[in-house]
Amino acid sequence: MTQSVTLDALDRRLIHALQIDGRASxxxxxxxxxxxxxxxxxxxxxxxxxxxxRVVGLVDSRRIGMLDWFVRIDCAPDATDALTxxxxxxxxxxxxxxxxxxxxxxxxxxxxxxxxxxxRPLFDHLLRTPGIRDVEAGCVLRPVxxxxxxxxxxxxxxxxxxxxxxxxxxxxxxxxxxxxxxxGRRDAEARLAGELALDGRxxxxxxxxxxxxxxxxxxxxxxxxxxxxxxxFEVDVSPSHFGFPLEALVWLEVTPAALKDVTxxxxxLPAVAFAAVTTGRASVFAMVQCRDTGALHDFLASxxxxxxxxxxxxxxxxERRAKRAGPLLLPTMAQPAQRFPARPTAHxxxxxxxxxxxxxx
Length: 361
What we know:
This protein is α+β, with helices and mostly antiparallel strands. Helix content is 34%, strand content 23%. The protein has an 8-stranded antiparallel β-sheet. A hairpin with a 5-residue loop joins strand 3 (93-98) and strand 4. The protein is globular and about 50 Å long. The two termini are 40 Å apart.
């Protein structure tokens, strides 16, 4: 559980800088922020130790032959906690949240695009798990908002400061396509992805030891994966620290002719933390951050209400986030009665890369 921490202006500027480049050196960030390097480093370590922020390395599922699914599970009230715990321990889930009311939970799941199983084991296990009454899964066809970070945490730096942190576009010495394909066959890159998922700012010496590569090879591989669009870095931080404690999930049924206009509008709305076009009854799914229920009402009635082409809308309030973008760092005790087959063990504190990154021997 994160501690109660109030973010000041420097904290917010630091978080914005890390969202732009999660592996930027403290000296570079300090220069852009106009603060002493020791102060910037101390602020980062304070926030990370308090479990307020964490930089995580994330793999683009589409680039490595995976699909992202938004899964909505209806279950008995006495099964919700056990199922949440079991799902959070898996390495193929993220953004797990029981919904207010106690009988539903949602998560993102990652499955292979093709193959003999085609991701069915996860969904089959869910349907066979006691206490689960229904499973609804929508495949993410295209993210349309929030890919570069929620606007609420990316508004602290001006345009010149952001440009200074972006630097030159990274170039892949091995070629983006070759590198993306090779990443699916190499254990070392799977270990690299796993370490960066735990700590996106892990030092090069640690990553070299984990992969068996030299420090220069680690730097080159990270640069290549980023240039290929396979790897990016995200600041894992709760919007509640920015004064937006209310999170709502919104499902929109949008007419095909209006889909482009609606998704473009969502990408410009500051309350939208993430949105995507998906399969299923609702063609658009969104995560929305608000200060309170009044602000949520205004968002639904005024901002969404002004968009033509939305035929039906469904909303749900998130009770809590059991898991965000990155893997769990703290041991989680499994419920004795839960029977859901978690791929990692109950006290898992490490993360491996998706299946298609692992060596196929």
